[in-house]
Amino acid sequence: MPPESKRTIHTTLAPAGRGPFPQAVGIGSLVFLSGQGPLSVETNQPISATFEEQVHQTFANVEAVLRADGLDLGHIAKVTVYLTDLGNVPAFNHVYERLMPTPRPARTLVQVGLRGIDVEIDVIAIHPGRVNAPSMPQRPET
Question: FRET pair for 127, CA 20 to 30 Å: which of 28, 48, 56, 87?
């Protein structure tokens, strides 16, 4: 894929990544967000809050990155949720159901070890105003 077909998406309205990666990358009509957590935009550090407040902050950060490319939560096609404790699934779902418009996107939720936070979310969104990415070469049938 030519490098010019991949675009980096950045906003100062969401925390900067904690590593050598962008907040998001767009390829054609697809937008891939790097994992977002409950970090403060001002300090780039985890907020001190209840689990539900952490989920709200995480979604606020996701939405800020999406808005940098003209999108919102309604453009999300796939959500991957990383939780440190599966006991928090009901609380996560409570916030998720209030924030995510219907029809809701496909979703995967897994338990993981995270440093200093209890939730992280990455998403794939579809940008209706962009042309699809170049098609991949087809493999010959065998």
Answer: 56
Residue 137 CB contacts under 8 Å (≥ 6 apart), including other chains: none
Burial of 35 (0-12, 13-18, 19+ CB in 10 A): buried
**Residue 133: inside a domain, yes or no?**
no
Q: Is residue 132 part of a domain?
A: no
**Is 136 a member of any domain?**
no
83-125 confidence digits (pLDDT tens): 999 999 999 999 999 999 999 999 999 999 998 899 999 999 9
What CATH number does the domain containing 55 carry? 3.30.1330.40
Number of domains forming the structure of the chain: 1
Structure tokens at 54: 């952490």
16 dihedral zone (left: phi>0; alpha: psi -120 to 50; beta): beta
Residue 81: pLDDT band with limits 50, 70, 90: very high
Q: What is the pTM of this model?
A: 0.88
